Amino acid sequence: MTTTTHYKPADNLHPIHDLIRHRWSPRAFSSRSVEQEKLDSVFEAARWAASANNMQPWHFIYATNEQPEEHARLTSILFERNAMWAQKAPVLVLVVAKLYEAPGRETVSFYDVGMASGALVTQAVDLGLATHQMGGFDASKAREELNIPEGYVPLTMIAIGYPGHADDLSDDFRERELAPRVRKEQKDFVFQGRWNG
Ligand SMILES: Cc1cc2nc3c(=O)[nH]c(=O)nc-3n(C[C@H](O)[C@H](O)[C@H](O)COP(=O)(O)O)c2cc1C
Q1: Is residue 85 a part of any domain in this protein?
Q2: Cystine design at 115: which of 2, 49, 76, 85 (Cβ 3.0–4.6 Å)?
């Protein structure tokens, strides 16, 4: 039996938009290439994110499975545990933030790049694509291998592709692939009026 993995919607307690409900982070990707128009759209969604003073500090370096050398270079930046499954994703993206120069404002640039990445992964759902963001990669190696200049910080990587089948994963990854998605309750992070109010 082949287990399809592309449907693992949020078990939401209140109504939310389907695009949010259906986004999740699989490890099984199909080898099917992603059309360039779709990639253009996911980066376009990022382009239209909000940012402080409209500074747009986000940068994306990507490679597809049609550029094996570049794809392998991005794969080599991932920590091994991520590379094991993410190397099969047809598109790999490195997300880079330009640091805002005013002292103490670095976190604002990170916030803005998170906004853009959120738009990117949400747009991907609308196009039938799966995404999996990864903090597990070697940022120093990324900087060296991809010529990232000072003042820019590699933040995350994102695997993008069509959903694959859980059966193609190793046992431990398959188990996680099929496990229920869990979340904290709103009362643990939404406060009315004051902290823990
Ligand atoms: C910034 C960030 C870093 C992440 N790093 C990794 C990672 O290195 N490896 C991995 O397998 N998943 C990684 N994830 C995926 C999370 O584990 C996943 O989003 C979380 O468990 C919630 O599951 P869901 O995305 O399916 O809702 C990361 C997600 C984010 C947003």
Answers
A1: yes
A2: 49
Determine if ligand 1 sits within 6 Å of the CB of residue 82. Answer: yes
* Token pair in block for residue 45: 């969604």
**Is residue 181 within 6 Å of ligand 1 at its C-beta?**
yes
Task: Tell me how far the alpha carbon of residue 22 lies from the centroid of ligand 1, in angstroms.
Answer: 15
Atom of ligand 1 nearest to the CA of 25: 26
Of the candidates 39, 78, 53, 58, the one whose C-alpha atom is nearest the C-alpha of residue 118 is 58
Encode the chain (197 residues) as per-residue pLDDT tens digits: 444 545 899 999 999 999 999 999 999 999 999 999 999 999 999 999 999 999 999 999 999 999 999 999 999 999 999 999 999 999 999 999 999 888 778 889 999 999 999 999 999 999 999 999 999 999 999 999 999 999 999 999 999 999 999 999 999 999 999 999 999 999 999 999 999 87
CATH number, position 169: 3.40.109.10
Instruction: State whether the beta carbon of 169 lies less than 6 angstroms from ligand 1.
Output: no
Ligand 1 midpoint to CA 193 (Å): 30
Cα–Cα separations (whole angstroms), residue 189 to 4, 14, 108, 157: 33, 16, 21, 26
CB distance 60 to ligand 1 below 6 Å: no
Total structural domains within the chain:
1
Amino acid occupying residue 150: E
Residue 8 in domain: no
Structural domain boundaries, residue 82: 18-179
Closest-CA residue to 64 (of 161, 137, 141)? 161
Indicate whether 35 belongs to any domain: yes
